[in-house]
Design brief:
- There is one protein chain.
- Helix content is 41%, strand content 17%.
- The protein contains eight helices and nine strands.
- The strands form two sheets. It has a seven-stranded parallel β-sheet with strand order 3-2-1-4-5-6-9, sandwiched between helices.
- A hairpin with a 2-residue loop joins strand 7 and strand 8.
- Helix 1 crosses helix 8.
- The chain starts with 19 loop residues before the first strand and ends in a 6-residue tail after the last strand.
Length: 286
């Protein structure tokens, strides 16, 4: 049994043996769970986090599992992040196979109180950074895919953009965040049409209510510092319980639940699926 979720632990099938996966924001929460999931299926992992300590902790955990992995520490919004992140993968393991644009956070405010800085921050991390990473990934893969095709090799690669039900249905206090996540859906659809000829599947996973440090049930006022900005985290316990009760399956998702949804778009069984947005949210529709 998995100690965190009290669910049966599935036997690894090694469907991703020797695949190279890059996961932004994989030092904590959903990204960390995804790194462990893909590693358990045989993938080599390039870990990323804004902070060195959590990135190194995940690398240490993966190496105990026998996984080949490296860390690239830094903000996805930094200049040249995309190129340097992908170059790290190539130097360590060769041509990458999977890119998951997972890094992000929310900075909520009602529109009449919202600032340009809040809007710009969400644009930078939730839309511009995925654009830059998807572009850098494509520039590396396109010539490789052409050579593979000329030699009769069929090799599908994956881009998974991480969105939210806020981008699908909107959410009070999240005009900045929901706008970027909605636009990410358009990016996904367009790239699926552009990149299909390179055998790159491009899909989007929109999370519902997932338990992480950003959404923990607490009546304490908590903040985290992200690049100089104090960001409120946590949800009042009564409100947290109300959100959970709205979910048809009866509970908020775990980080592992979220990671499993992304995993589906990484494996060979999804080779003929592209341009889709799938909600991983226990059946909730806001």
């Amino acid at each position: 049994m998995n100690e965190l979720t009290n669910k049966p632990t599935l036997k690894p099938t090694l469907k991703l043996k020797d695949k190279v996966a890059l996961i932004t924001g994989s030092g904590r929460g959903i990204g960390r769970s995804l790194a462990l999931k893909l590693a358990s299926e045989g993938a080599k992992i390039v870990v990323n986090d804004l902070d060195e300590a959590p990135a190194n902790e995940v690398v240490a955990t993966l190496r105990k599992m026998g996984t080949d992995c490296v860390a690239y520490v830094g903000s996805v919004t930094a200049p040249d992040f995309a190129e340097n992140f992908i170059a790290t993968a190539i130097e360590a393991f060769g041509t990458p196979d999977i890119l998951v644009n997972n890094a992000g956070y929310t900075w909520d405010s009602m529109i009449h109180k919202s600032t340009d800085d809040q809007f710009d921050a969400m644009y930078e991390i939730h839309l511009k950074a995925p654009f830059q990473l998807n572009r850098a990934f494509t520039r590396i893969i396109a010539p490789v895919a052409k050579d593979e095709a000329e030699n009769g090799i069929s090799n599908y690669r994956k881009i998974i953009n991480i969105s939210s039900i806020s981008g699908e249905f909107g959410n009070i206090g999240q005009v900045n965040y929901s706008s970027m996540k909605s636009a990410l859906g358009g990016m996904t659809k367009t790239l699926s049409k552009e990149l299909g000829r390179h055998k790159i599947n491009v899909n989007c996973v929109a999370f519902g209510f997932i338990n992480t440090r950003l959404t923990e049930a607490t009546d304490e006022k908590k903040t985290i510092n992200i690049e100089g900005n104090e960001i409120a985290i946590g949800i009042p316990k009564d409100l947290h319980a109300g959100f959970s009760n709205m979910i048809p399956l009866g509970h908020a998702g775990s980080a592992e639940d979220a990671a499993n949804g992304v995993y589906l778009f990484c494996i060979p069984e999804s080779d003929y699926i592209s341009g889709q947005t799938v909600i991983v949210g226990g059946g909730v529709r806001m």
